[in-house]
Structure of Isoprenyl transferase:
Amino acid sequence: MKNIPVHVGIIMDGNGRWAVRKGLPRIEGHRVGAEVTVEIVKAAKRIGVKYLSLYAFSTENWKRPKEEVEFLFNLMYEYVKSKLQLFLDEDVKFKAIGRLWQLPEYLKKGFAEIEEKTSHCKSMTAVFTVNYGGRQEIVDAVNRAIKEGVKEITEETIKNYLYMPELPDLDLLIRTSGELRISNFLLWQSAYTELWFTDTLWPDFTPEEFKKAIEDYSRRERRFGGLGS
């Protein structure tokens, strides 16, 4: 396959609706969705994607019931503890970005541990955005620059102060569950991203459908404001 995207982002939407449709508690949708994430990480690495960014928890998700938020944090913690060997075996580096300082201490430590233990991995980087918002990232970047005495804010300045400055611009953004919006996800990095939407709920999203999105992207001509070929 030609024209493999370097950086793919996924808004993993539909866990709760999937569970409700099956008569299950919403948390069961999140549990199944976490396992789907494992398969998509492996599929992205096999295809040749270099960066895979996954919207795990937005700054707006704090509005959900307290019990669901606590379950999600515990699920993330169990995920990073139980999937460490998988990341090592797949040679995938783990990164977490967002307003991590607002997360429970145990979760911050879990993220730091898997980041440190996978820091040498080179095949792909899996970026989990947690307590993340695109507008908030830009605000935090500008405030960090001001705090360090930067006198003039340029595009390069903002990029250098983002949560993960080395993260390249997003080539392809996938959203599941039929919603047609980007929901404050990687706004700075998405200036010229290609969009791909599917009605499939995240727990039903398969490596085959992921490959279909990549194939669709590979046929597109990206002009970045120019005239193209």
About this structure: The chain has one domain: 7-218. The domain at 7-218 is CATH 3.40.1180.10 (Undecaprenyl pyrophosphate synthetase).
